[in-house]
Structures are given as structure tokens and as C-alpha cells.
Design goal:
The protein is an alpha+beta fold. The protein is globular. The chain has 6 helices and 8 strands; from the N terminus they run βαββααββαββααβ. Strand 2 (50-58) and strand 3 form a beta hairpin. The chain has an 8-stranded antiparallel beta barrel, surrounded by 4 helices. It has 2 domains: 17-111, Alpha-Beta Plaits (2-Layer Sandwich), CATH 3.30.70.100; 114-227, Alpha-Beta Plaits (2-Layer Sandwich), CATH 3.30.70.
């Protein structure tokens, strides 16, 4: 569940939730991994939710890591989809096959993420590049972190990004409680324009406050991922 000091948390129909599976593509198995993701998207997607597949393009040591994400409009919608998938024998058989030695991808982790209430309404849209910055809020600083998250989301969307949001991981093992601020851009040219904006006076100020000694959260990692269209 979200942090204990998140006093204005609302568990309602307006809260988007998602399930993500991260994987590591085996050497020489890129084509097979994409084909397997397409099969998974077909099986999972027929039970609802928006299914997307990404491959890390700039992520440090996470070379050839994948992200298979399914987002739902609400917790209730996700629950209904999970019940349907649990009773889908074809999907269950696929899951077992994915755990076998012949699978082109090794599953690294499964997580759930809940959209946090920053007060920012994401600009609708979809981009081919996903940028994600993970952090760990300091105890008792969640409200400050959300305010800063709103400021970041508004800044990136003012410079070409879409679907900017802040989420918190739950049911994620040792990663539970970690937050991620993410957004999408259309292409690499759009990403370069956004990168240039970060070096404006407003961008530098926002960066400095986000990593200051007294910042409300501790930065953990940054990742760029390219979407692979599966259909």
C-alpha cells in the first residue's frame, strides 16, 4: 500500500493501476523475445487493460532488459481482469512455458504500481520513448514529494512530453514503496528538445531541488525505454 503519511490518498475509480513484468532477453534471442511478448499481449489483452512492451535503450547495466506492462483504469478493473486470467487455461499454460528453459526471456521481477495523487492531470497521448526516474521518498516527506512530482510533470509536459505521472510500487518485494516519475515523448528529436529544456534556468533549478541534500526523496535510477509495437 502507499506510504503511511499519504493522508489524502483515495482508492477510487480515478486511480490508474498497472502490473509490470521485467525480463532479461537471453543472448541471441531478441526476435524470439519480441514474438513471445506479442503472444503474451494477445492473451493478456483479451481480458482488458492497455498492454505495452518496452526494451531498455539507455539504462546503465540493464542492457536488453524488457518491460511488459498492463495498465487498468481502476483497481476494480484490474481485479476483474486478474480473475478472468486466473481462469484462462491458455494463459496459464503460456505462463508455465515462459518459466521453462526454452523461454527466450528470463523473468526478473513482477510488480504492481499505483498512480499517486499529485493533483496533476496527465496530458493524454502516447510516445515511442518512455523515461522513468525511480526514487525513495524520505519518511514523513510524501506530501512534499508529491508537490515536487506535480511540478516535474507539468514541466516536462510543457516541453513536449505526454502522460506524465508519479506511481508507487507495491507487492514488489524489496522494491515495495519505491516511487517512479515517468513520461513519454514522441521520438528522439522530441527527447532532445526536452533534454535541452532541462538546462534552462527553470530546468536547472528544478533539477537542483530534486537532488538537494534536503530533497523529499532520494534518487535511485533513471531509465530510457523504447516501445516495441506488438500489433
Amino acid at each position: 500500500m502507499p506510504g503511511d503519511d499519504l493522508g489524502r490518498w483515495r482508492w477510487g475509480n480515478e486511480v490508474r493501476v498497472s502490473r509490470a513484468v521485467t525480463g532479461q532477453i537471453k543472448v541471441g534471442q531478441m526476435e524470439a523475445a519480441v514474438a513471445t511478448a506479442a503472444e503474451a499481449a494477445s492473451l493478456v489483452g483479451r481480458h482488458g487493460g492497455e498492454v505495452r512492451f518496452f526494451i531498455a535503450s539507455a539504462s546503465g547495466d540493464q542492457v536488453n532488459q524488457t518491460l511488459f506492462s498492463t495498465q487498468y483504469a481502476s483497481p476494480v478493473a484490474m481485479g476483474a481482469a486478474f480473475d478472468a486470467m486466473h481462469n484462462d487455461p491458455e494463459l496459464q499454460a503460456f505462463g508455465l512455458r515462459m518459466q521453462g528453459i526454452l523461454s527466450p526471456t528470463v523473468v526478473m521481477s513482477t510488480t504492481m504500481a499505483i498512480e499517486l495523487p499529485t493533483g496533476h492531470e496527465p496530458k493524454p497521448g502516447r510516445g515511442s520513448i518512455l523515461e522513468v526516474h525511480a526514487s525513495k521518498p524520505r519518511p514523513g516527506r510524501m506530501q512534499e514529494f508529491l508537490a515536487q512530482g506535480k511540478e516535474i510533470c507539468e514541466f516536462v509536459e510543457a516541453h513536449g512530453a505526454v502522460n506524465a505521472q508519479v506511481v508507487q510500487l507495491t507487492f514488489a518485494g524489496t522494491q515495495s514503496g519505491i516511487t517512479a516519475c515517468g513520461w513519454e515523448v514522441e521520438n528522439w528529436t522530441a527527447h532532445a528538445h526536452l533534454g535541452q529544456a532541462w538546462f534552462s534556468d527553470a530546468g536547472v533549478d528544478l533539477q537542483a531541488r530534486a537532488v538537494a541534500r534536503d530533497a523529499p526523496a532520494v534518487a535511485l535510477s533513471s531509465t530510457l525505454l523504447n516501445e516495441v509495437r506488438l500489433s
